[in-house]
Amino acid sequence: MILKNYLTLLAIGLIWGSQFIFQEFALVSFSPIWIGATRAVIGAITLIVICKSLGIKGTGNQWVLFSVIGLLEAAIPFVLVPWGQQHLDSSIAAILMGTLPFYVLLLAPIFVKGAKINIANTISVVLGFSGLLVLFYPELSGAGEINLVSSMAIVVAAICFAIALLLLNRVRNEHPLIVARNVLSAASIQLIIIAFITAPFEYQEASTTALFSLLYLGAVCAGIVYYLYMMCIKNAGPVFTSMTNYIVPAVGVFIGALVTNDAIQMNTWIALIVILCALFINQVLSKNERMT
């Protein structure tokens, strides 16, 4: 089971880490808010088709919970993160989003019955965050003033993510595919409404690359990855799953270096090793605590 958790988390990290390059291609023809809204819609449709083809049906009695999770998981962050990133370096935004596991750890006793702040989770979260600092040290060492309002927008988005992740533990008797489908369906409706209000749609001819990138972002980076995300929460818990926020930036740096043929810096390798150690500690110590 531990190996399965690692492989699932690695798959999530690889998929979400690849989104940055495709997002750049999509931004050539589409606005950020419409990329987010369309991505959610395509993801929801992808999961609906998969559920239909596999004959998986939901109970249909937890839509209020799914709507709240969709709002916190997608709608609010999809607005706050792009807005906050307008006045922040990407490295600062990644560090601020990397605080998400801390919020999951601190808020777990409030939202999850019987949850406690244990040693395994605390050590792994602190170590994983250290890896994130190592990854972006070159950029952080030369950073100037940090916009406080923009930073708070990213932090609020991270807290919303954390609460949504914890609320998923309240979903009962549903297949992970159904959970992913329902959350994305609720979020897509909310995002379409937000998109029409904040950025009225204007038709313009899009490139083939932009259209393919948008399709990939929706079907894979929203649809398929959300199923893996829900499965990881179910099998390994919210704290372990929230540590995707440490893996995704590292994977993004690796993919960016490969695309541009740049050399991968030593600090990137060190950061990756530290992050992997944090994941290992989380699973091993958690298993030992359950056995004692």
Structure description:
This protein is mostly helical. It is built from 13 helices and no strands. It has one domain.
Quick overview of this protein structure:
This protein has 13 helices and no strands.
Sheet/helix structural class: mainly alpha
C-alpha-based Rg, rounded: 19 Å
Alpha plus pi helix count: 13
How many separate domains make up the residues? 1
Q: What kind of sheet is the major sheet? A: none
Can you write the helix and strand succession as a string?
HHHHHHHHHHHHH
> What is the overall silhouette?
globular
Beta-strand residue fraction: under 5%
Regarding quaternary structure, what we see is: single chain
Record the SSE blueprint:
Elements: H1 2-27, H2 32-54, H3 63-85, H4 90-97, H5 100-111, H6 119-135, H7 137-141, H8 148-167, H9 176-198, H10 208-236, H11 238-242, H12 244-260, H13 266-291
